[in-house]
Design a protein that fits this description.
25 strands; 5-stranded antiparallel beta sheet; 8-stranded mixed beta sheet; DUF2207; Immunoglobulin-like; 13 helices
Length: 604
Amino acid sequence: MIRRAFIAALLGLLVVLLPALPAQAATSAPITRYDVDVNLRDDGVAEVVMDFTMDFGQFSGRGPILQFSTKQYDGNDRDYWYNFEYSRPRVSSSTGARTDLSVDTSSTAVVWRIGNEDVVNYSAQDYRIEFTLSGIVVSDHPESGLDEFNWNVFSGNDSDVTDLTVTVGGPVPVERAACFTGSAYDQQCDARISEGRAVSQLAQLPPGQPLQVVAGFPAGTFGGVEQVRTRVPSLMSNLTPGVGGYAVAGALGVAAIAGSAVLHRRNKRDLVYLGLTPGTTPTRGEEGRVGLQDTSKIPVAVQFQPPKGATPGEVGTLIDATADGIDVSATLIDLAVRGYLQIIPDRSGRNFTMRLTGKDTSALQEFESTLLHRIFKGARTRTMEELREKDFHTVMSGARSGLYSAMVHRRWFTKNPRTAGAGYISLAVLSALVGAGLGVLLWNQSLALVGLPFLILALGLFLVAGEASQRTAEGSAMLAQARGFELYLRTAEANQIKFEEGIDVFSRYLPYAMIFGVADRWGKVFAQLEQEGRYQTDTRWLLADAYVSPYYFASLMHGFSNSFSSAMSASAASYAAAQASSGSSGGSGFSGGGGFGGGSVGSW
């Protein structure tokens, strides 16, 4: 995430997205009546009156709070966004509620907070809000051939809304009307034309559900008014080599590269216990001397067991300071081997089901129990096909975050590996902004190239940030043990395997072999042992239709890991698509899919 944020800053891209919120429980006073009346003037400006009742008898509050989007990306050209203007409203209440108004604006939205902080309502109150809105009308739309008023009345609410009516009229009668709701604005709702006005009605709009209304007028009704669009700034698009300043740019470039190299060398070293055999720690009461060394160059001895108490996922994260997808997959297989779940492949060996065994999970580490909770969500079984749904998009990110936290909890790293490079990232962003700023500032003097070394330095800092995770002396000792165990898994032959009483060594160490990338070799060694009648694997955690040899066992787990990673990627993509679909694609409003703007209403 940090790296993506850096790249976004370096390229100067500002992402504005107001997605439709999923259905959720109400967190604000319900609205028992909501009438919206829109009258469009000849110039396309909408005069809007919102008249509604908020029932504070069910959920007390000081008053309504409304939020509206003022910017939205053009779905056809991501270099531009649309701009909408909501005027400062006039507020009144026929029931005598406080109508104090505060307005907060940001780069993408405006928030209207109505009421007094010291006055709490406990009964139903009526409110009337009048304001003007511009930027919503699309003249002579190429698909519908109409002037379209295409507005997201709501992009998601905190309140439950019942008895909702939206009426849209203009200088001439409406020719076409439509209304859409649903998380992707794909469910049509009641829309009709009455006395030349578009009327949309819903009996109920649950919390989190959006609402889009569309009214089509004859082309030219609003004099060809155009939506206001502004260009998204792109510094890199303005950066081109100049004809002068090469000496200065060259000197700065050499300095930037040299500085990055020094930082790279410094960050390659971890804290270690000096004077002790790699992999050992001071005895109790002994104070070890600590210094800096490049742990990648320290020789290690063969270890016949993994670091004591360290799970495969933790070992994988310790080795490269990165919680990868394989670390999460190996964690699941390790949980299966330890009896917490069973893995069930289909006949093709490409699709899998996971089933909880019911074993008490109180002894699990926090990231392990959280992983199981996010996968099963109270169910006993879960298929990979189900995990592809957007509801599971936090499984992988949550598991990775848990592994990073485990590194800090075990004191194997001086800082969380995920955020250890944040300081370098900040400097990289600053350097990138300086370089881009100089490029723009010196554009007319043909010295834009002077800004390039700062961008080179930014890139160097960015790369250094990926190496900023420094292991503690304890972490370096565990790393030496992990590498010694990796050496054992990579080199041990069938007659060199160290067996442990009561433990299926093959299954127990298979997740570690996956982390080290030697699962196939580990499977071949035990396949040989089985052929010679010297070993029998315990396959109770894998419910296959037929006998599975150790070699195929390892191959099958590769398939499980790939299937799980694919499901997680699909889930994340499905969630992103659902979020992105809440914005307008630039198509006709009569196709649904969301309109322009977007608001919400709740209480405070």
